[in-house]
Design brief:
- The protein is mainly α.
- It has one domain.
- The protein has 5 helices and no strands.
- It has helices spanning 2-9, 13-17, 21-41, 50-60, 63-91.
- α1 runs antiparallel to α5 and α3 packs antiparallel against α5.
- The longest helix is centred in the middle third of the chain and has 29 residues, at 63-91.
- 13% of the residues are buried.
Length: 121
Amino acid sequence: MLAGGLAALYPGLGHAMLWRWRRALGWFALSLATALLVVTLSDVTVPAGGLEGALELQRQLPLEATLVMLAVSGLNVVDAVRVAREQHATAGSEPAAGTCPSCGNELDEDLDFCPWCTTRL
């Protein structure tokens, strides 16, 4: 649920928490591209920056544009929760030799912790 909450807060943040960097960047880029496309295709005047400008832009957007952006954000949250559950389900299974039982990355034999997620071994 934490990954879903972070994903709702900012696109890709939930995936970043799960160390899924490509997915995080992908969701962030998709959300940004959707917002830019929606604003470009909508007949709105872009106000000055800041919070007041962002709120004014949101008021000017048609309902369809807002729904498209909410759909992308919602799919981001659903994907973050799905990935987190999948990662949690596989965490209890027996890890492959030489991989971290927590994050699944390759281990260094000389260390007594995972250099990727710092889990003690």
